[in-house]
Model the fold of this input.
Amino acid sequence: MSTLDWTVLAVYLVSIVSFGYWVGRGNRRIDDFFLAGRSMPWWAVGLSVMATQISAITLIGTTSQAYNDGMRFLVVYFALPFAMVILCVTLVPFFYRAQVFTAYEYLERRFDLKTRTLTSFLFLMQRGMSTGVTLYAPSLVLSTLFGLPETLTVLVMGGSTIIYVMKGGNKSVIWTDVVQMAVVWTGIFTCFFMAIHNLPEHVSFRGVLAIAQASGRLNAENLDTSLETPYTLWSGLIGGLFLMLSYFGCDQSQVQRYLSGSSLTQSRLSLLFNAFLKVPMQFIILLTGVLVFVFFNFHEPPALFNSDARATFAALNSPEKTQAEARYSAAFEARRNAALELGATRERAAADRYRAAQAEFAEARTNVTRVYKDATHTTAYNDINYIFLHYVLTQVPHGVIGLIIAVIFAAAMSALSGELNSLASATMIDFVRRFRRADRADTYDLLLSRLITAFWGGFACLVALQAGKLGSAIEVVNRFGSYFYGSILGVFMLAILTKRANGTGATLGLFIGMGIVGLVASFTKVHFLWWNVVGTVAVFVCGYLISLAVPSPSKG
Amino acid sequence: MPAQGDQNSDTGHVPVFGTWRNIYAAVLIVIVVMIAFVFGFSRFPY
Done:
């Protein structure tokens, strides 16, 4: 990175922290701190909803996934507009009219205290650990590619976010999210146009798409009905619908955003704003990754995108390494020639020749990875998160590199800020205020809310700094989160769609549902998007039957 | 019943689209068109 890049990054960081601190002044009560005084316009809340969902690793991982695997990941978002309409008709009016702070508060009104406490506790556990991953994943990538110390990136991202979230709460979160989304979109469109600009002049855009199609990178349509096939239209529409309903309807990090709307109309419009924009936005991000793939058809990409692994591999001295490198370069040359022919002619025979060359190239790359893993005794090697940033670092002009790194920081900080504020609200509202015996002054509650925010921020930094050692523990927590999502939706469906369901049924149903999802995940190859359907249906059915068998003590 | 135009009701005015029914219909039409576009984009014989 050049001085210009560092300057761009520094200007972004100083500006966003100063702006977040300034805009967050004037909080008097915890309504102001957690719900921005219920005064936000729809467009600001809508951008904040979007910003909370996009983490840094989503941004660099999605483009890299498109490079490796094409656009099929897009189907996950097909259900989002349907989910938003359903939520606008059902849960959002319930939450808004109940004037709750947290989604789980509503469950006590409908069921009982234990249901609220359990769901809020599960949210805190899952989201608390995932904030660490929100920080750790981009830090790891940035430290590897740019030589930045991991501790520095974690502390800069985490520390600067904690400062403005502690000061201004949700008001600072939402307004900084607006600015950060502007930075992210500027970066995305810059990358998109840079990716087009960097393609060879003698290959038309239609030729570029022909190459992408022949390589299977435009594979967004898959009508396979198998539950094991990843990212089919059906898993996207049905499994994705349950995932989106759960994430936007039952996860406090999102619910808190739209509860800050100045009216029910503003809250609904903020979700529908996302319904209109999310799919086109993901389409642009994925297409950028595909264009980067086509670019590397004409410029030899490294076989190993992780720069540490590449340096280790370069230092190896063995006949296998020399052979693997020679095969890789030859395969690249053959694929480049086939791509040039296909780009120029767009004929079926040329597409067939290209596909054969692409298959050999992929095989040659796998061979290099195998030689590296054998030589270094590495069991798992995955460089998917390094692909896009390698492209940025090597193909994008200075200044723009700084902008893209600022985009990564913006995406990480916007996701983290929303998560910290929601963790603080669930802790303060569902535990501290719910279980203490006497009311306290607003100033005391405000101070305590800020300290809780600092605690969760510190916890996130600690998890991020220890994440390398906690590897398997984080995987367990993420897996647990996958079991949780569909199941929690089942509890809310019991609350809204039935009159006879009670707290005992909902609580036991939640445990049974999570257990069933765990069994499906462990003993079948059913794709994870379907787990959400399994969890929701299991909790709903089991919870309802248990409610019929075990009457609620309060009503009994 | 909430009054017409109430910002916390289901009958309040919705900017641009007029009613909630209209905006929900617009969202659903846009996503169906978007899915059709993505499928066409994937399969178009370039």
Q: What stands out?
A: Residues 20-43 of chain B form the longest helix (24 residues).
